[in-house]
Amino acid sequence: MAGDGDALRAALRAANTLLQQRRYHAALAVLKGFRNGAVYGAKIRAPHALVMTFLFKSGSLREKLKSIAQATYTHSRNLAYFVFTYKGLMALQSQLQGKKNPFHSFFAACIGGWLVFGDNNPINSQIVMYLLSRVLFGLSRLAVEKGYVPQPKQDPFPLVAALIWGTVLWLFEYHRQTLQPSLQSSMTYLYDDSNVWHDISDFLIYNKRTDSK
Where do the TM regions start and end (predicted)? Predict the structure, then answer.
């Protein structure tokens, strides 16, 4: 038993020594990026999938739990693969050219996005649309910072909010099929289901009656 403990301590010392070696830093950073991508993806997706599944999906408890586990696994795996690919390509480009430049980041992320998030499925679609909104806001701010667009005299956010909400509700009412399924489900609950009730039970307590009255 003592021998096993000594062997474990020796292995930990060897691992810690390896982690301190600067020449392995780039490769180890890629591995830790994979780890962080997997953990972060699980942390983000698990609670979201739990809430959305129990709010909007039908089926048995087993089916719901399977759906949550599958969504969490897919998000976690894809983010881990993307971080691994991105950091690996960044390290490779830096080693080949001897320094970093802005194009490296764009190129590495494009390749990772194509390979990992190019499959058009609900998880990837949601992640890409989440990023799209942030990219548009970021590019707008960058355009102002660089002087390509004049600094607004008033905060433009109220106008942006009005146009976004006006457009999304117009799409929902007249071109619903163009919206993401999860957004359709949320809006159906908010705007369609609130038009239907039979008595106090499905007016205040439940969204829909489950009996056959």
Answer: none
Buried b (16+ CB within 10 A) or exposed e, 121-137: eebbebbeeeeeeeeee
**Max Cα separation, the chain?**
74
* Closest CA relative to residue 48, chosen from 78, 79, 80, 72: 72
CA angle, 11 then 17 then 21, to 5°: 140
pTM above 0.85, yes or no: no
pLDDT at 213: 46
Return phi, psi of residue 148, to 5°.
-70, -30
Per residue in 115-158, pLDDT (tens digit) is: 999 999 989 998 999 999 999 999 999 999 999 999 999 999 99
Domain boundaries, the chain: 9-118, 122-151, 154-196
